[in-house]
Write a structure and sequence with these properties.
Structural class: mainly beta
Order of helices and strands: HEEEEEEEEEHEEEEHEEEEEEE
Largest sheet: 5 strands, mixed
Number of domains: 2
Shape: elongated
CATH superfamily of the largest domain: TonB-dependent receptor, plug domain
Number of helices: 3
Distance between the termini: 85 Å
CATH topology of the largest domain: Ferric Hydroxamate Uptake Protein, Chain A, domain 1
Strand content: 35-45%
CATH architecture of the largest domain: Beta Complex
Helix content: under 10%
Length: about 300
């Protein structure tokens, strides 16, 4: 019984579309056979009778093991009869009279469909190449991370202590680099606590990191650093975030930061102002080549309100 279930379901589906008519109906008998080009019979081919005026289905059956089929129903001629099977072209024949309704033969042809080329590029969540382990940051985020620090905490092996120090597998990092350049020196928490993670493409852990690249392969070290690579749309443009908070009694807290990333020039600006007891500040970090870094932090009195 189980092998007939797909057939019964197909019959019920087709019947649901059958039209009802008050016109005079005649008993019509249609029979034939379905074969391959080699004349081998084809079983389980769907045979459907359609009205000529609107193509509605009025009868349905399937070919048997000998490829033969027979349909008897009440209706009118002419009609179309179709034969279809998975992987083969759907074929039609027109039945104009009772004489042409018997000994119908369908010869199935292989259906050929040219598919458009689809290129699938898969980037794994974690890649290891030599001393560099790269994490595709977006694969680990939920979307509610407020800053880079919260995003890094989602990566396997990463941890951040109360002071904002970043560690990987229990080892504190020495540098937080932007596209290979050291803007922040040891004050990377200004960046990690304020920068939004949405612009970051990969987070790379650099094992055996040396600040002097010329000494790589000569001097041995166990230091590690983290390098941030940026998405293409965030390069060569100035972007940033603004945090504005307010409360009762005219209390406020505001933080703004901006970043510019290009191959020769990288810059990070961060300013804050508030009247909730925190120190207001402005910091500017920039680099014009991999070996030259300028850091100028200062706290203007005009932005301090106690």
């Amino acid at each position: 019984m189980g092998k007939h279930i797909p057939f019964l379901i197909s019959v019920c589906f087709i019947i649901s579309f059958f039209p009802f008519s008050s016109e005079a109906q005649n008993d019509i008998y249609i029979s034939g056979q379905v074969v391959y080009a080699s004349k081998t019979p084809v079983a389980n081919v769907n045979i459907i009778v359609h009205r000529t005026q609107d193509s509605l289905a009025v009868a349905f059956t399937q070919s048997n093991q000998q490829g033969k089929f027979a349909i008897q129903y009440q209706g009118q001629l002419p009609v179309f009869i179709s034969a279809s099977a998975l992987g083969y072209e759907r074929m039609f024949k027109k039945i104009d009279s009772a004489d042409s309704a018997s000994a119908i033969q369908f010869v199935l042809n292989r259906g050929i469909k040219v598919l458009e080329e689809v290129i699938v590029t898969y980037v794994p969540k974690i890649q290891v190449r030599g001393d560099t382990t790269s994490y595709k940051l977006s694969s680990f985020l939920a979307g509610n991370e407020r800053n880079l620090e919260e995003a890094l905490a989602k990566l396997p092996g990463f941890s951040i202590n109360e002071q904002g120090q970043i560690s990987v597998n229990g080892r504190a990092i020495q540098k937080l680099l932007l596209e290979g350049d050291d803007l922040m020196s040891t004050n990377y928490t200004a960046l990690s606590k304020n920068m939004s993670p949405g612009s970051i493409n990969q987070v790379q852990v650099l094992d055996k990191y040396l600040n002097d690249r010329m000494m790589k392969g000569i001097e041995k070290t166990d230091d590690i650093a983290v390098n941030l690579t940026f998405k293409k749309e965030f390069k060569n443009v100035f972007f940033g975030d603004i945090l504005a908070e307010g409360g009762e009694g005219k209390y406020y807290n505001g933080v703004a930061n901006g970043i510019f990333i290009s191959k020769p020039v990288k810059a990070y600006l961060m300013g804050s102002a508030n009247n909730i007891g925190r120190q207001s500040s402005f910091m500017s970090y920039s680099t014009f080549n991999p070996q030259s870094t300028l850091a100028i932090p200062y706290n203007p009195m005009l932005m301090s309100k106690n």
